[in-house]
Automatic annotation (TrEMBL):
One of its GO terms (biological process) is receptor-mediated virion attachment to host cell. This is TPR repeat-containing serine/threonine protein kinase. Gene3D superfamilies: Tetratricopeptide repeat domain (1.25.40.10). It comes from Nonlabens dokdonensis (strain DSM 17205 / KCTC 12402 / DSW-6). GO terms for molecular function: calcium/calmodulin-dependent protein kinase activity.
Amino acid sequence: MGIVYLIFILLAFFLIVRPVSTLIHELGHGIPALLFTNKKVTLYIGSYGDPEKSLKLKIARLELFFNKNTNHWGTGLCIIEESVSINRQLLITFMGPIASLTLSLVLSYIIFCTNINDGIKMGLFVFNFSTYYDFFINIIPNSTPIVLHDNTQTYNDGKQIIDLLILRSFTAEYNLGIELYNNKQYDLAVVQFENALNKGFNESIVYRLIWNSYYQLRDYNNALKINDIFFNEKREEYNSNDYACSGLLKSHFGNYQEAITDYNMAVELNPTNTIALNNRGYTYNLIENYKSAMIDFNEVISLENEFAYAYNNRGLSKIKLGHFKEGLSDLNKSMSLDGTNSYCYLNFGIYHYDNGSYNKALEYFNKAKEMDITTHRIDQHIKTVKNKLMG
């Protein structure tokens, strides 16, 4: 009977206690991250960022991936999409161990200060051991890197907290840059980020923020320059999103094959990176490889069924493959999800142009240019349809 009971306790520990304990720890990171940001927060339970073979649960901006193999549920990871100040990053990092410790203290009180059934007490004791373990293993700084699913590296909470405290002492420019960046004052933000970089704060996040600031300013030459520096100096930290951004930038310069190579790497590192998949499909459209583009857009929509850009881009692929009715349906779906996208108007114009309705096409092309003068090839489309009308 004793052996059976021991086996039961061990099974409960690995199948129930460790997953719940890990989830609570990661929610300790995730909840303040949701409070401090406006973008998606992703928690991985049972992996270091691997969405494959995982059960997905989405609650508003919180996305959770539970590894189907419960043997790995002692590991976890919190990913936030939006950049935050060092002080907020410190709090988000610190709250993981605090969540574990708080639960540990509550369980300790119940176990030692209340009269409960011995069987329940034993179960809570096992749970309590797991939460204390999570606290100490994470709060004690460990310089051994943790290799994530996309081959980048991170460190445990304690090491990250120490590093952030050190960085906070000389990164006033970074914090000011974040404030300006979040206020969309990209021209001022990039100055602060470059000052921080010049003072030795050469963290990957700084390169990413400089890159995106230049991109938002449509200063693609400087964005390409910082992208190359980042890749050469921090290649081991270059992740799926970085390759996706690099591909987008290269496509702006017409280097479509190089862009596709970057997107391929982004998808290889993270097969559910919908931005990379959508942008690769968009690039396939540009080089008139519409069948390959369709595969990417179908995958994006299966992963995120309200991705307006994917419907818009898939609509163009269908139109170019001669499936006009289905293509128009996708364009209408995209418009219902996001009516502020100039590329949707562009593709409506292409639809009408391909159907010989040149006046209607010109109307949509002009609307696209009015919404965003940098819409790709918009002047070329307007010139072409005007020539048709004049001829």
